[in-house]
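Objective 1b: paired records.
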Amino acid sequence: MPPHAPAITSLHNPHVKRLVRLRARRDRDREGVILVEGARELARAAAAGLELHTLYHCPALYSPEAREVAPTLPGPRLELSREAFEKVSGRENPDGLLAVAPRPARPLPVPGPNTLLLALHSLEKPGNLGAILRTADAAGVGGVLVLGGTDLYSPGVIRASQGSVFTVPVTALDDAAAQDYLDGHAFTRVTCTPDAAQDYWDAPLTGRVALVLGAEHAGLPAPWRTAGLPVRIPMHGEADSLNVATAAALVLYEALRQRRPPSSR
């Protein structure tokens, strides 16, 4: 479509109807695509080399960041009216940028002798997974394994991660493949579970280590709980669990603390 084409205004336009359908995981999975919304998220996706099939934009809704980012984004683009964009957006206050892109195919990381991984099992809430990915990005982990059928590229995860889902080496896979990978590369699995006897700060977290966390309600499945080194985060109040994103940050940064060179301790 040429650059001067008029904006799409009809809520019954095929593009609008497709974008609404793609909010559902089954439709995204069927087409092998993801939705990426927001200037920051799109900038990080593009910087990571993600191809954008089509960029949908609405200049009337641009935030200052969107106005700066929009000209830098690659690929074909279509303009939507304010009403049409608000129809397809998954946000209360959209910034006027939304793209359809192919679902990334991320290979498992090739580990070094001191690679630190996170393995996350059946996290139900996109906000928790997104927050953990931001922490993983900040900490420079070697990779994140997402297990249990979690929708890694849901719009909620992409938004909560602020695009870190595209900057961290992250792979979704099933339990058997994850166990084969970790065992095949001689990772020590450190499993976070409240009934462990050892506090996490007393456990050795150096070398080739995978920190394994599960959902707050269900915890880790038995095959994961019984393998590796179980650790706990001490709880002294009435609460019986921590938010999983908080737990991941605590254990991850303890691992980084233990990995500091002697000169910086």
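Objective 1b, second protein:
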Amino acid sequence: MKALVLTLFTATLLSGCATETEALKRDHGYVLEWIGERPLIDNSHLTMTLGKDGRAYGNAGCNHWFAAYRLEGDALTFGPVGSTRKLCAPALMEQEHRFLDALGKVQHWDMSEVEQLQLWPAAGLPLRFWLEEG
């Protein structure tokens, strides 16, 4: 009986780990909803895709962005972020700057109770994304 309980406990732990790792989808888009404590400007569209090749990219609201990333379990970090150089309205540019700056501070990720991807900095509130439909 003791061996059966131990086997079931181990299987539960292992299946929980697999589910957690699989919760972060690669080569699939995410749409940003919040940057820390602030929601996005209406009708702005910021996105992120984590490629299986270790490259992340997306739309920062005005410009396209790209960076290398490293994923190890729940640890996630981004290398230096590059972007195209279009100019947009000042409010969009300020939001884009906050987003790109926040990416450089990400240290780990998790999924919320409502299946929202959260990218956490060392201090403060996370970037919150929804899985892009389609």
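The first strand starts at residue 29 and ends at 35. The chain has one domain: 25-131.
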